[in-house]
Amino acid sequence: MKNKNRTRKIKIVTVFFMAALAVSGLTAIPVKTEIVWLQNAVPTSWTIIQQFLSTIHNALYSCDETILYGFDWLAFAHVAIAILFIGVLRDPVRNIWVVEFGMIACILILPFAFVMGHERGIPLWWQLIDCSFGVFGILPLGYVRHLILELEKQQEREMRSLIF
After folding, report:
1. pLDDT in the model for residue 1
2. Furthest C-alpha separation in the chain
3. Cα separations in angstroms, 37 against 32, 43, 59, 79, 132
4. DSSP readout, 87-115?
């Protein structure tokens, strides 16, 4: 019964992670609409943030539409990576590498956000928001990895008991 409960938890958290990953990527597609919404949602008294959002707004609305195609590919990558986690749903122990891949990607967000953010002139506070995706992503993945390792140990114990 413990294995069924662990497997159920693994599936629930994995599906949550897959959905969050896909949705976060798909939000890149309507970026022009979202920047307007964000500018309206952020209080005007937050001048530094409003200035940054205005810079983004101006860049998005002045660039050629083909540049925005990069956002479409960003969305595609998120969805494709989310699909990769189907392997965890099918056989968590055998496909633990997918979870570990996801954890490595979450860790890599940190140096990537800081290096490229600095290179592109992104404010530190926005770089920290970007880093939060890695921090919040690694938490459920770490939990799933822990559950998979326990499931693997339990399966090994059950196999040994059948042999002896």
Report:
1. 57
2. 72
3. 9, 12, 16, 24, 21
4. HHHH-TTTTHHHHHHHHHHHHHHHHHHHH
- The total of other beta-carbon atoms located within 10 Å of residue 95's CB is 19
Q: Which of 102, 32, 104 is nearest to 71 (CA)?
A: 32
| Closest to 71 (Cα-Cα) out of 34, 105, 19, 31 | 31
pLDDT digits (tens, 9 = 90+) for 19-59: 999 999 999 999 999 999 999 999 999 999 999 999 999 99
Number of helices and strands (H, E) in the chain? Answer: 7, 0
Q: Which of 1-10, 94-103, 125-134, 139-148 has the lowest mean pLDDT?
A: 1-10
Rounded distance between C-alpha atoms, residue 31 and residue 74, angstroms:
11
Collapse the DSSP code of 28 into the 3-class scheme (helix H, G, I; strand E, B; otherwise coil) and give the result.
Answer: coil
- Which runs of E-coded beta strand occur in 20-135? none
